[in-house]
Design brief:
With 452 residues, this protein is α+β, with helices and mostly antiparallel strands. Among the domains are: 147-262, DNA primase, PRIM domain (Alpha-Beta Complex); 269-448, DNA primase, PRIM domain (Alpha-Beta Complex). 29% of the residues lie in helices and 15% in strands. The protein has helices at 69-103, 110-123, 127-130, 177-186, 188-195, 246-254, 288-304, 331-348, 416-425, 441-448, and strands spanning 22-24, 35-37, 147-148, 153-157, 160-162, 168-170, 175-176, 200-204, 214-216, 228-230, 240-242, 257-262, 275-282, 310-313, 319-324, 353-354, 366-369, 379-380, 396-397. The protein has a 6-stranded mixed sheet, covered by helices on one side. A 4-stranded antiparallel sheet has the order 9-8-12-18. Strands 3-4-5 form a 3-stranded antiparallel sheet. β4 (153-157) and β5 form a beta hairpin. The protein is elongated.
């Protein structure tokens, strides 16, 4: 085989050539462009490529009409692919013929193969005839179905769409948003009597308890569905809101609410509180036995004043002591009475209680927070979840159960159902709505003077 001759390529002149002139036919950015290239001696005009975003590039073919470099490269690659394909086909045919010769069989002509294929196609049953019909699968009810959303599965509770249902809102317990919504829906029979007609503040955590948490006291510019709005109750602010139905409760939790805090008054008589709340907040170094003793001392003092009180866990570190009242005293009267009780406890048992806010005053003591009793202040609702790691729940207890408690967050989403079943059989706050008692300025003065 004769050696392949190499084509000699002459040296390319480095003489600078004048650049061609471009004349745009369209000038709107983002459109297709086409340009005419100025002619020059010994050159051939070629149609330029259509480009986007104002990139104006054109190529001129050199003398002789040779195609541009990009087109040349594409043609070269195509020719190589065709040669490789023909080479592989010829190589496979030769090997097949040799194999047939060794085994004594001849190749089947192409026409015969085509006839055989046609015959097989006529005699073989179709794929659709061989496939068995698919059994009908019953669909789940709409309320139980879920679909994949952008941030997780989208679920439904009571026919209300729950977005990001699988998002974990508490890493410590593995609680998902859907778990929280389902709990609030189950606990609605016990929660709604505590929520109905009371202004409520929301603690919302769009990124879970470990993310940013914010406190919402008033309605937003885009109201939450089913929530009742009350104009004019808080002048100079957006309407206050109440949660009066199960649907409203589910909608509120769907909007990333974890905690619910209620006022000490109802909307019908917003200027007259109907309860006083004492939040016993301990130094974290104290044991729970000190909390039990503090709650019992508080109950005893209130009993000496002729007031019946009720206890619940806070869902956090402490306990809440609630004193129901017949509406009559003002907000100032309620605050003065609560402050007098806290100061009396602090003076009577100075090693156990403090009535002064601040961690430096609470060292190895229990802070009696009486500031829950001013207008606009609120307290975590009974049976409400707290936005803290572990997601404890504030649960009412009977006084004879206090000694058996183990902490303010004893009940969580993991064990609350057993407690709800117990409450259904025996409500520890069954007497709450039947209590008729009140406070007065004389009672407050007697406490301030040191009498009981």
């Amino acid at each position: 085989m004769a050696p392949r001759k190499r084509r000699r390529i002459g040296r390319v002149s480095r003489k600078r050539v004048q650049r061609p002139a471009f004349r745009p036919m369209h000038a709107a950015k983002g459109e297709l462009y086409r340009f005419e290239m100025g002619s020059r001696p010994a050159s051939k005009l070629t149609e330029t490529k259509a480009v986007f975003l104002g990139t104006m590039k054109a190529r001129a073919a050199p003398a002789g009409g040779r195609p541009p470099r990009a087109v040349n490269r594409t043609c070269r690659d195509s020719r190589r692919a065709m040669r490789r394909k023909r080479s592989m086909g010829a190589r496979g045919t030769g090997m097949q013929d040799a194999l047939k010769a060794q085994t004594g069989t001849a190749r089947t002509p192409t026409g015969a193969r085509a006839e055989a294929v046609d015959t097989a196609a006529q005699t073989a049953p179709s794929a659709s005839a061989q496939r068995a019909p698919r059994a009908a699968t019953p669909r789940a009810p709409k309320s139980q179905r879920a679909s994949s959303g952008r941030h997780g599965t989208i679920g439904e509770v009571d026919g209300i769409r729950i977005t990001s249902a699988r998002r974990v809102i508490d890493v410590a317990s593995g609680t998902r948003k859907l778990d929280l919504v389902r709990y609030y829906a189950r606990a609605a029979p016990w929660l709604l009597p505590q929520l109905r007609d009371r202004p409520v503040s929301l603690v919302r955590a769009p990124h879970g308890v470990d993310g940013e948490v914010f406190f919402q006291r008033h309605s937003a510019r885009s109201p939450i569905p089913e929530v009742t709005q009350h104009e004019g109750l808080d002048p100079g602010h957006l309407p206050l809101i109440t949660i009066d139905t199960r649907e409203a409760l589910v909608h509120v939790v769907q909007m990333d609410t974890i905690e619910l805090h209620t006022w000490n008054a109802v909307v019908a008589d917003i200027e007259v509180p109907d309860r006083v709340v004492f939040d016993l907040d301990p130094d974290p170094v104290l044991g729970w036995d000190r909390m039990i003793e503090a709650a019992q001392l508080t109950r005893t003092m209130l009993g000496e004043l002729g007031l019946e009180s009720f206890c619940k866990t806070s869902g956090g570190k402490g306990l809440h002591i609630v004193v129901p009242l017949v509406p009559g005293a003002s907000w100032d009267d309620a605050k003065a009475f609560a402050r007098a009780v806290a100061q009396r406890l602090a003076s009577g048992w100075p090693t156990q209680f403090t009535a002064t806010m601040g961690p430096e005053h609470r060292k190895k003591k229990i802070f009696v927070d009486y500031l829950r009793n001013v207008r606009g202040a609120s307290t975590a609702v009974a049976y409400g979840v707290r936005a803290r790691p572990g997601m404890g729940i504030s649960v009412p207890i009977a006084w004879d159960e206090l000694a058996d408690t183990t902490g303010g967050a004893q009940w969580t989403l993991a064990n609350i159902d057993a407690r709800l079943a117990h409450v259904k059989r025996s409500d520890p706050w069954a007497r709450y709505a039947r209590v008729r008692q009140s406070i007065s300025s004389e009672l407050t003065l007697r406490l301030e003077e040191g009498g009981a």
